[in-house]
Amino acid sequence: MEIIGRLFEISELQRLYNAKTPELIAVYGRRRVGKTYLIREFFKNKFTFHHTGVSPMEITGKELQKRQLEEFYMSLREYGLSEAVCPTSWPEAFRLLRQLLENKRSAKRQVVFLDELPWMDTPRSGFVTAFEHFWNGWASSRPNLMLIVCGSATSWMKDKLLNNKGGLYGRVTYNMKLSSFSLKECELFFKHKGIGLDRYDIVQSYMAIGGIPYYMNYFRPGLSLAQNIDSLFFAKNAPLRDEYDRLFASLFGDNSDSKAIVKLLAQRHYGYTRDEICKKTGISSGGTLTKTLAALVNSDFIIPYTPLGVKRGTYYKLIDNFCLFHLNFIGKKAVSDESFWHNSIKSPSIASWQGFAFEEVCFSHIKQIKNALGIAGVQTGTSSYIIKKDGRKAASQIDLLIDRADRVINLCEIKFANKEFVIDKSYEEKLRQRSDIIQELTNNKKNIHLTFITTFGLHKNVYANRVQNSLTMSDLFLV
C-alpha cells in the first residue's frame, strides 16, 4: 500500500536504515496519527523482531504485567525463538530478545520494532530499567541494529526516553514526532482513496476531525461530506462516537484533569491563563497541573501563547479540531438523529462552530500562510491580541498576529464563508480601530498590514481596498 505524504519522515528512515551505526529511534505522536502504519509500510517484511504492547484499557494490576510478558514471549516465538520458557520479568524478557537477535546474527541491518512501548511499562514492573540495560549493555554496541520504539503517550516518550535523566540520558539517536496531515496531504489521501471532495469540503472535514489519517480512512466514496460525518459520528454504531474517551484513556491514563482542562478551553476561543484554569477546574496549582498542561501541549491538543502586549502571563488555547467538534456536538447532548449533520448543516450552532474551527485550521497551517505571504524566510512570531471588555464592548480577540522581523505586523482576520466575504462600512470601521490599537501598542514602530484569510476571498468593493493581503483556503493547501 502506498504511503501518502510523510516525505521527510520517509527520507529520514531511509537514511537511518542505510547508516552503519546502532540506532535507537523514538517515534511518537497522538493516537491514530499513523505512526505504526508508517513504520510497517516503510519496512514491509524487513523486521527481525516486532512486538506491540497490550492495551491497558481493559486489564490492570499484576494481571496486566503478566499479560505483557506473555505476549512478548509469543512474539519472540513467532520470530523464531525456541527452547525457552515464558519470562516472569522484563530483564528475562530482554535477555531472550538478545538471544533471538544473536541467533539471527548477520551482516544485514537488523530492524527491531517495539510498538506502544509505554503500555509495556506497567507499575513497579522495572520495564524502563530492563530496557535501559538491554540498550546500554548490549544493543548500543551492535552496528547493524536499528531499534525503533513507538508510543502514543507522548509525555511518557518524552519523560522516560527523550528527557531521561538516568541511564537513557542522550541515548536516543533520533526522535521523530508524527503530526497530523496537512490539508495538502489530506487532499492527496482522499484522491488516492477515490473520495470525491473539493477543497471547501476537505477544509470542513479538517475542521471536524483534523488531519488524522485513521479517521479519514472511514470516509466512503459516493457519500457527501455531510453523509460521511453522520456516518462517522451520529449513525448507529458510528466508529468515532466514543473515540474521545478512548483517545484520552490511551494518552493520559487517569485523564480526569486533562479532560477538565480541554472542556474548559473549548468554552473560550482565546483560552485561559494558568490561574484561571486553576480556579475554574478546581485543579490545584502545582506539579500535577504543570504535568497535565505539558502533556496536552506535547500531544498537540493545546498551545501556550503570550498575547501581544502582555508582558507576563501565558494563555492556553485549544487547537485540536476533533476535540472541539466532539465537545460542541457530541459531548454536550445525546443526539438520536442519525442524519443530524445533514439535517442541521444550516443551523446557527454549526455556523458558530465553523467560524472557530476554521481559525484552528489556520493556526495549524502557519507555515503555508507565511509561504502565501512571501515571508517564509522572515523571522516571525505568532500570537493573538485580546481586546479587554469595557462598558461599551464585550471582550474580543484579534484572530492572528504575525509579528515580523522586517518591521511589519500582519493583522489577520480569519473568516469562514460559503462565498466571497463582504466588508461593509461598519466592519471597515472595526478594522480601522483594531489597526490603531496594534499601532499604538507598538508605539508606531511597525507597519500594520491588514490581512484576510477566507475560504473564497474578498468581494471587491471600496472597503476591501483597505486590505493589503487577501488569502483564500487554497493558499492553505500549499506545501
Which terms would index this structure?
single chain, alpha/beta, Rossmann fold, 4 domains, five-stranded mixed β-sheet, 13 strands
Describe the protein:
With 479 residues, the protein is of the alpha/beta class. The protein has helices at 7-18, 35-43, 61-78, 90-103, 117-120, 127-137, 154-162, 183-193, 199-209, 213-216, 225-234, 243-252, 256-265, 274-281, 287-298, 321-329, 340-344, 348-363, 366-373, 425-441, and strands at residues 23-28, 47-52, 110-115, 145-151, 174-177, 272-273, 302-305, 315-318, 380-387, 396-404, 408-415, 447-454, 469-471. The chain folds into 4 domains: 7-177, P-loop containing nucleotide triphosphate hydrolases (Rossmann fold, 3-Layer(aba) Sandwich); 183-241 and 330-357, no CATH class; 244-329, Winged helix-like DNA-binding domain superfamily/Winged helix DNA-binding domain (Arc Repressor Mutant, subunit A, Orthogonal Bundle); 366-477, Trna Endonuclease, Chain: A, domain 1 (3-Layer(aba) Sandwich), CATH 3.40.1350. Helix content is 43%, strand content 16%. A 5-stranded parallel β-sheet has the order 2-3-4-1-5, with helices on both faces. It has a 5-stranded mixed β-sheet with strand order 9-10-11-12-13. A 3-stranded antiparallel β-sheet has the order 6-8-7. The longest helix has 18 residues, at 61-78. The model has no long low-confidence stretch (mean pLDDT 92).
